[in-house]
Structure formats: C-alpha cells, structure tokens
Amino acid sequence: MQEVVHTSNAQREIGDVVMAMKHITLRFGGVVAIKDISFDIRAGEIRAIIGPNGAGKSSMLNVISGFYRPQDGEIWFNGQKRRALRPYQVARQGIARTFQNIALFEGMTVLDNVMTGRLTHMNASMFWQAIWQGRAEREEMQNRERAEQVIDFLEIQHIRKTPVARLPYGLKKRVELARALVSEPTLLLLDEPMAGMNVEEKEDMSRFILDVNDEFGTTIALIEHDMGVVMDLSDRVVVMDYGRKIGDGVPSEVRNNQDVIDAYLGVSHD
Amino acid sequence: MPEQLLFGAEVFLNGLMAGVMYALVALGFVLIFKASGIFNFAQGVMALFAAMTFVGIQDGQVPFAHLINAIFGTKIHHFGWELHSLAAIFLTSLVMICMAWAVQRFIFQYLVGQEPIILFMATIGLAYFLEGVADLMWGAEIKTLDVCLTDNTCLPQGINQLIDAKTYDWFGYGFFIDNLDISATLVAMLLVTVLIVFSQYTKQGRAMRAVADDHQAALSVGISLNYIWILVWSVAGFVALVAGIMWGAKSGVQFSLSLIALKALPVLMLGGFTSIPGAIVGGLVIGVGEKLFEFLVGPMIGGATENWFAYVLALLFLVFRPQGLFGEKIIERV
Fold this sequence. Notes:
Distance between the termini of chain B: 56 Å
Number of strands of chain B: 0
Oligomer: heterodimer
Order of helices and strands of chain B: HHHHHHHHHHHHHH
Helix content of chain A: 25-40%
Largest sheet of chain A: 6 strands, mixed
Number of domains of chain A: 2
Structural class of chain B: mainly alpha
Number of helices of chain A: 10
Number of helices of chain B: 14
Strand content of chain A: 15-25%
Order of helices and strands of chain A: EEEHEEHEHHHHEHEHEEHH
Largest sheet of chain B: none
Shape of chain B: globular
CATH superfamily of the largest domain in chain A: P-loop containing nucleotide triphosphate hydrolases
C-alpha cells in the first residue's frame, strides 16, 4: 500500500467548496450517530472521512447521499442550501455513490449495470426510445460510448457481458465504481471502497481512485478505516470518533493530532 | 391422414388459443411480482374491475349511480351516450392509472420492506375492496361486453370459415377455430411485443428492471421507487384491462370473472413467477395439455379432467422444478 504515490498532486487544482456540511446532527432514537459536525469538500480533491468502527462515517455518507435525514444542520451543495431530498433526487443532482456492501443489479451484465448509471442522462420521450429513433438514438449512442470509455478505463472490458452475480468480490467493487463514475458526477462518494479486499486488489483500487481523480477531475469523498491507505490517497482528511469530529486537515497534520492517535490506539473515554 | 390424428391437431390448436387467454392473465402477475416482489392476489379482480369499468364507460352508465340516487333521491342511471370502444379503452386505462397511483399511495408506500406474506395479505384486502368498489360503481348485474370481438367485426368477415374451407381442401378435414380466439391471439402477440420493447429499450423499462433487482442500487442511480411502482401497477392494470375484455367477451362480465386469477396460478408455477416468456409458454403448455389430456385420456376416466389437470401439472412442477420453466434458478449458497 505504502508505495502508492500521489504523483500528480502538483498539477491538480483544488477549487472552490462544492459541498459544505454545517453543524450536522443525526440521531437514531436516543443514539447520537453524528454530533454537530461541520466540514467541506472542495472541487477536484480527494476528501477522506476516517475513524474507528462505529464512529459514524457511513452515517455521514448516507446523510450526504440522502439515505438518512439529519435532525439538525445544513447541507450546502454548489453554493446553495439543499432542502431535504430523497436519495434518487440527490443522485439526479450529480452525487453518485457506491456502497460498503456492494449494491449492484446482480441479474444484469456488467455493461447493463454501467448503463443504468446513465439513466439520468436519458431525456428522450418513452415513445421515441421504444422505436429507437431521433434523439433517443443519439442519446443511446452517446451513453453507450461513455459507458465503454469508463469500462476501458477501469479495465473491465473482459467481463463486459458477464452477469454480475458471477464476478468475484474485487471486480464487483470495480463495476460499482464504474456505474457511479459513468454518470459524470459532481461529487463521487465511496463507502469503504477497499473493505474486504486483499493487498493486490487494494492497490488496484487505490490506483483507480487516483486515476479517476486525475483523468476526469472528479471530486471524491471516501470512507476508509485503513489509515495507511487514506493517508496516501487523500488531500484532506476528516477524522471522526463516537459521532464527533476530532480532526480535520491534510494527512500529515492529522497523523500527528493527539486526539486522532488516542482514538486509533484506544484511550479510555471518560 | 387419419381422421383421429387431424381431430387431435384441431384440439391442439384450440388448446393453444385457450392457452393465450391464460397467459394474458398470468402476465399481469409476473409484471408486479418481478418489479416489487408482491404476489398480487388482486390481479383477477383488477381484470374484473377493468372490464366492468370498460362496459360502464362504453354504455354511458353513471358511476356510483345507486349511491348517488340513494343520497340525493335522484333517478339518474345513464348519461345517455354510447362511446366508441377505443375511446372507452382509453378512458378505462386512465382509470387504471389512477387506481395504480392510489394503490401505491395508500397501501404499498407504507409497506416497503415488509415481509412478502404481509404484502400478499394486503393484496387480498385490495382484492375484496376493489370488488366492493366495482359493485358500488357499476352495479352487480351481468353485462355483455360489446366490442368488435363479440360480433366478429374486428377481423375480416368469415376468417374462420376460410380456415375451415382451406383445411378441408388440404387435409379433407375442416379445422374449426373460434374467431374470438384468433383475435385474442393477435392482441396478445401485440401486447407482448409492446411489453418487451418497453422493458428492453426505454429508460422506464430499464429502471423497472433495475428496481426489480436491487432497491438501494436503483436509488443511487437516480430512480424513484415510487414512480416505478406506480408505473408497474399501471402497466399491470392495462394488462388486466386486456385480459378482462377478452374473458368478458368470452363469458360475459360478471363477478365470477375474478376467478380467472385461479387459472393463472398453475400457469405461473409452470412458467416461473419472474419471466414474461415463461408466462406465455406456461399458458400455452397448460392450454394445450388440458385440451389434449381431455381428448386422449378423458374418455377413459370419465371426463371433466379440465378442472384439475392444470393443478396436477403444476404440482408435478413444484416437485421436480420449483422455479418453473424459465424462473430464476434457486441456488442456496452455503
């Protein structure tokens, strides 16, 4: 893992704030999953959310993607305050995601799965789509081309026509990344993209995440609890523990933060 | 060719035609089951409701006439118009879309993620509710369904006489095929083609398949589950309308029409609950099997085999191939 080097850091430009979370609080009954957390994500960066198990990382990702609704706090996206949205509305705004426990369409082929990522880019009416003419045909060609590009990019050409149910875990993760990426998202959310992978698969996935960020300039927010991976990949890191934010900054800063070290090494919480 | 064999061939053909009618009903079940995992017990009642609404609209009957008259002391029963059957089909389709919306909005929206048995119970409730609404809206008397199917004006005049004459020339034996069955076959073929094109090539069709596969993943690519479910119930409602018109034309629009759902059960077990081609082939196999069995074995055991043959065949399938002919294979991972 350690040999992954962020070569292109210098050429990339970190832009304006794309998404800002302001004082987010999320409760499940009496349990406070997220407590008053604020942070932002800037255009073009790889932003990591890390923390021990149960820190509330996945909850945070689910808040961003609309699967959970926070009781308190504001979410600002593209400079506008976002009203409470449903997950599909968030997706249509240009926020794509992957899941910790892979959510793919198991019965479909890899290509069909990736094509579903283009559904938000199909605007021709049902009738024209059915008879495959005019605008519908042009859109379909574009979408197909885009899908093939992403498939090439993530090196899954050889399994294009394979039903997803037959693929091994590591490849499924890559297909899921392809489906999220093909929608050309403003913000790409990755929920533990390397969970359950062996070292080789982790290296591949890290490389893909960096390449996606470089080539397409995609803004990425990812969750991971493997510190080593995160420190190499990301530009800035948010550290969570027990629903609170205990650190925020570039990897070198965060690594030396006493609270973070305590959280990871385990200090009794009084 | 021997007379007996030709007669057998005619029975076979008639079985195919009957099978098409079964397949029409089974299709509605498959659509909803595939997309939402709900076994819709109300599909038969939906066909009844659609057929009654169709007749009611066509004859210009005032909906809820009895209720209105009882409350306001009026005596209205008819608007006094006769609509063209195409217009009536269009209006009935709109009614079925409203029904789909209501079913999703008031029932299944609250039951997302529940156990299949609870969803199933909800559809039983829906079946009785819908039957009551149909009764209240259009009255309980038996009606004749008046489309071109019943008086044979859909197809060129005398097409069955033509078949009869031609086959007599060729084989020395005239095949008799009911006109209604020919129309039903053509309509079913058209319906299935449209359904397949819709589900394979349109955005909505792809979204439907996506929702059928995985809810979370569907949400994450921007599909509204509610919208898709309303769409699916609307399509199933339209299929119910087609089935209702066909069966209504055959046996009159009456409350026993809802029992055609029971005819669809063995078809589903044969064809699999998740396969559109399965519903078609299952329907045909049962139609043909039923008629041939009655023809070949019936006389030996005293006839009336058509009542139970389909169910016994379905039982055999449950034992040897529980997923049906085309259903997704059930693999238990250990």
